[in-house]
Automatic annotation (TrEMBL):
The keyword Transferase applies. NCBIfam families: 16S rRNA (cytidine(1402)-2'-O)-methyltransferase. It is found in: Cytoplasm. It comes from the Bacteria. It comes from Rhodobacter capsulatus (strain ATCC BAA-309 / NBRC 16581 / SB1003). Residues 29-231 form the Tetrapyrrole methylase domain. The lineage of its organism: Bacteria, Pseudomonadati, Pseudomonadota, Alphaproteobacteria, Rhodobacterales. Gene3D superfamilies: Cobalt-precorrin-4 Transmethylase, Domain 1, Methyltransferase, Cobalt-precorrin-4 Transmethylase, Domain 2. Catalyzes the 2'-O-methylation of the ribose of cytidine 1402 (C1402) in 16S rRNA. Residues 258-299 form the RsmI HTH domain. Its EC number is 2.1.1.198. This is Ribosomal RNA small subunit methyltransferase I. Pfam families: RsmI_C, TP_methylase.
Amino acid sequence: MTEPDDDLGPPVTPLEEYGPAGRKPAPGLHFVSTPIGAARDITLRGLDILREAEVLAAEDTRTLRHLMDIHGIPLAGRPLVAYHDHNGEAVRPRLLAALAEGKAVAYASEAGTPLVADPGFQLGRAAIAAGHRVFAAPGPSAVLAALTVSGLPSDRFLFAGFPPNTAQARRKWIAEFAQVPATLVFYESPKRVKEMLTDLASELGADREAVLCRELTKRFEEVRRGTLADLVAGCADAPIKGEIVVLVDRSRAPRFGPEDVEAALRDRLQRLSVKDAAAEVAEMLGLPRREVYQRALAMEKD
């Protein structure tokens, strides 16, 4: 049961009506997710916000105008402001001024969910710092779409974004993720994806399971699955074009050897019981508690 909130108005139902048949967007910054390929993937709520917001901002105004034209949404004299990495410092004050006037400002990424590898991050932080409300109209996301079709574990994942361009920096960067206990998700340019996959195989292990998704939701959508070694070989056989997401499974190899377990147990057995020492080490190293407890018992006997 939802408790009333004096600041936010009456409680809402799980599916609240929003849009022309319900209400206009509230004053504040509205981040609108846009399709990553198929124009029909935009949500009805996203269309409502684009139709009713008093100020529109977009990473690429041409892309947003095209999307609005497809869905029959007129600009109707409203300002449409380009906001991207190269002009953010100059344009942000204008959008913040509109928010200060109590207007509903909609920001749309070029494709996908704003703030995910997107310049909207600084805009959102600035709006929050100025005390304005920030809303999300959720929708398409290349990260989640790729994770959905990959077949890799989705219970825990880490979105790492784009790797560095140079080989040395890229390898060093990739190595930081080697022991992360989660599915790793990367973006990469088709110009560098073969080199990136080669470095992934080198730093994470050529036998690590991985998936390459290309042109998700578009006409030439493709999903390649296999080990990192398989994907590297596949690049030689069939060059890759288009928007790319690379996913890598978590490491299945043991992270710690027997000497690591014994060293950790030896330290804790000086101040803890066998049971407590085993529990602490098992938690720290991510190992089965029973296995560590048996080892602790053997060390006590020795």
